Amino acid sequence: MKNIFLNTLFLFVSIISFSQTSDISISVSDAGTNEPLLGATVYFEELAKGAVTDFYGIATFTEIPNGNHIIKISYIGFKTIETTIDVGTKKEFAFKLESGGNELDEVVIQSSRSTRTVRKIPTRIEFIGAEELGEKAVMNPTNISMVLRESTGIQMQQTSLSSGNTNIRIQGLDGRYTQLLRDGFPLYGGFSSGLSILQIPPLDLKQFEIIKGSSSTLYGGGAIGGLINMVSKTPDEEPTLDIMLTQTQALGSTANVFYSKRNEKFGVSLYGSGHYQKAYDPEDDDFSNLPKTTSISFNPKFFYYPSEKTTFWFGLNGTYDDRIGGDITKIESGENGVHQYTEENVSKRLSSQAVYETQIDSVSSLTIKNSISFFDRELTIPDFTFDGKQTNTFTEINYQKSANKTDWIFGANLYASDFDENDNATLQRDQTDITYGAFVNNIYDISDNWILETGLRADYNTDFGFFPLPRVSLLYKNDSGFSSRIGGGLGYKIPDIFTEEAEFINFENVLGIDKSSLNAERSYGVNLDFNYQTRLFETIGFSINQLFYITAINDALLLNSTDNGFFQFENATDEILSKGAETNIKFTYKDFRWFLNYALIDTKLNYLAGNPQKPLTAKHNAGSVLMYESEKWRIGYETFYTGKQFLSNGTETTDFVTMGLLLMRNFKFGSAFVNFENFTDRRQSKFSPLVLPPHDNPEFPEIYAPTDGFIFSVGIIIKPFGNEDDD
C-alpha cells in the first residue's frame, strides 16, 4: 500500500513538473537590416543549455522550466546581449543584435585608413587579433617572427647564420618589397631592415593587419609585395599590468613588462623588454646557430584627451641590440689560432611618434602625425666593418569624411631618408631621398551587396621623378555567408643598397647607388579571393578563403659582380613574375579550432634564361594548427610543411616538416606555459652543411631551413590586476 502511494505521488509530481515547462523558439535578426542571422548562439547559463539559429534565424528549445531565465545571445561581428526572459508567458521571443562586437568582422582596421570594419572593406586585409598574438608571444617572446612565419604565403628568410638577420617575404618577393608599419608609421627601413624583425617584441601589440599585393596607393613606395601594420595596445580606464618571464633550454632568457592606465584627461602605457641569449651550437661544429645576444627595448607613450572628440599621444621607442655569432671559441675565449671568425652587429635605435586626432563633427575627422627615427648600426667581420647612421622622418595630414554610402580620405605626406656611412669607409655610399606624396581614397556602397573602393596617389621623388599610383577594389557580399573581392594597383620602390643579396655578403665591396643610371622598381598586381562561412550540422563552424594573385616587378634591382671584384646594382632586363594561390580553412567545434592552409608560390625570374624559380622560395607550403581553448587551458599543436627549393647555383634542396606543441594553464594570478618548438628537430645541418671550411675564414651556404632546431621554453605571465580566467 505504501509503494502504491509513493508511485502515485511521483507520477503526480512528474505531471505537475511537466506542466511547468514550455517549448519555446527564439528568433535572432540583424537590427540594421532585419535579416535573420544564421548561426547565432543562444545559451541558457543556469540550465547549461544552448542552441544555434537555423537558416531563418530561429533557435528552438524543448522543456524549458517556466519562470525567469537569463539568456546570452552572441554572433560574430555583433554585440553580445544578455537579458532575462519569462518562459511560460509566451512561447516565441525575438531579439535584434546590433553590429559592433569585438570579433573579426567588427574590428576597425587601421591599415585601410577607414573607420569601416573588415566585412565592409573591398581591400583584402588579413587580421591577427590579440588572442592569437598572445599565443605567438608565448612561442617567441623576443620578436614577431613567429607571428608572421605562420601566416599563409609569408616566409621568414634568414640571411645570416651568425647574426640571425631575417627578412619578410610575402608571396615570394624579397623583404625590401614589404612595408612595415607601426600604428600607421613607416618602420625600420633601409639599413635596419635585416634586423628589424628581430627587434620588435610582440607583448605590447594588440593586432596585426596584413595586405598582400601592391599597396603603395595608401602608403607610398616600398609596399610592392604588401604591408604589415602592427597596432599597439592603448590604455583603458582599468589598469593593465603584464609581466612575462621566459627561459629556453638553449640558454635564452627574456623578460617583458607592459603597463597601461588612463583617466578622464590623461593616459600612459609603458613597455620594456630585455633578452639575453648565450651563443648556441646544437651541432657542436664550433659555430653558433644562435648568436650571443643582449637586447633591451623600451617604449613609453603618453596620451592626452582634451575632449571626448580629441586625442593627442606621443611615444618613444628605444632599442639597444648587441649580437655576435660565428666561432664559439672566439666568442667565449677570444681569438686563438684558427678560431678567428665572428660577425658582430651592434645597433642602437631611437624613434618618436606624435599623433593628433580630432573628430570635427559627426561625419568628419582630422589626423596629423609625425615620426623621427634614428638608427646606428655597426656590422663587423674579420678585416671589414660596415658602419653607418640613418635618419628617417615622416609627416602626414589626412582628412576623413563619411556619408551614408560613401567614405572619403584625403591626405598628403612627406618622407625623407638620410643614410650616412662612416667617413673612414673606403666606399662612401651615403644616400638621401626625399619624397612628397598626396592621395585620395573613396569607398562607395553601390548597393547592400556591392562595395567599390578606388584610390589615387601621386608621389614625387626629388631624384627619380613622378609616380602616379591608382588602385581599385570591388567587394561582393551576401547574407548567406559568401563574399568575394577583386583588386589591383601599382607600386614602386626607390633603389638603395640594402637588399638581401648585399646583406648576405655583409655589404663588402658593394658599390653605392648610381641614381643617374638606375630606374626605380615598378610593379603591378591583382588579387582575387572568395570567402564562405557557414555551420555544418549546427555544431561545427566552417569557413574557407581562397586567394589567387599575380604581381609583376619591372626594373628589379639586381646586384651583379664586376671585373675588378666589386658588386654593382643594375636594373633587370625583364620582369619578376610572382603568381600563386593561398587556401585557408577553419573549423570550430565548442572549444576546438582547426586551421588548415596551403600556399602555392610560383615566382619566376624572367630576366634569366629559362625563367627559373626564384632561389630560396618553396613552391609548395602547407600547415595545420589545432587549438583547444577553455577557461583553464590553451593547447596548440602545429604542423608545417615546406617544399623543395632551389639555391642560387641551381641545387634543389630537400623538403621538410616542422612541428610544435604549446601547453598553457590559466590561473587567477596569470598563466604558466611550456612550448616545444620544432620538437622533431628539423634543421638545415641534417640535410646539408651550414658552414664550409676553412675554419678561420669560413663560407656560409644559403639558408633554406631552420638553423636552431628544437627549442624548449617555459614561462609565466603574471597579471597582478587579475586574470580573465581562474582555476
From TrEMBL:
<dbReference type="InterPro" id="IPR036942">
    <property type="entry name" value="Beta-barrel_TonB_sf"/>
</dbReference>
<feature type="domain" description="TonB-dependent receptor-like beta-barrel">
    <location>
        <begin position="271"/>
        <end position="677"/>
    </location>
</feature>
<dbReference type="Pfam" id="PF07715">
    <property type="entry name" value="Plug"/>
</dbReference>
<feature type="domain" description="TonB-dependent receptor plug">
    <location>
        <begin position="118"/>
        <end position="226"/>
    </location>
</feature>
<keyword id="KW-1134">Transmembrane beta strand</keyword>
<dbReference type="InterPro" id="IPR012910">
    <property type="entry name" value="Plug_dom"/>
</dbReference>
<keyword id="KW-0812">Transmembrane</keyword>
<dbReference type="InterPro" id="IPR008969">
    <property type="entry name" value="CarboxyPept-like_regulatory"/>
</dbReference>
<keyword id="KW-0813">Transport</keyword>
<dbReference type="InterPro" id="IPR000531">
    <property type="entry name" value="Beta-barrel_TonB"/>
</dbReference>
<comment type="similarity">
    <text>Belongs to the TonB-dependent receptor family.</text>
</comment>
<dbReference type="Pfam" id="PF00593">
    <property type="entry name" value="TonB_dep_Rec_b-barrel"/>
</dbReference>
<dbReference type="InterPro" id="IPR039426">
    <property type="entry name" value="TonB-dep_rcpt-like"/>
</dbReference>
<keyword id="KW-0472">Membrane</keyword>
<dbReference type="InterPro" id="IPR037066">
    <property type="entry name" value="Plug_dom_sf"/>
</dbReference>
<dbReference type="Pfam" id="PF13715">
    <property type="entry name" value="CarbopepD_reg_2"/>
</dbReference>
<keyword id="KW-0675">Receptor</keyword>
<keyword id="KW-0798">TonB box</keyword>
<protein>
    <submittedName>
        <fullName>TonB-dependent receptor domain-containing protein</fullName>
    </submittedName>
</protein>
<keyword id="KW-0998">Cell outer membrane</keyword>
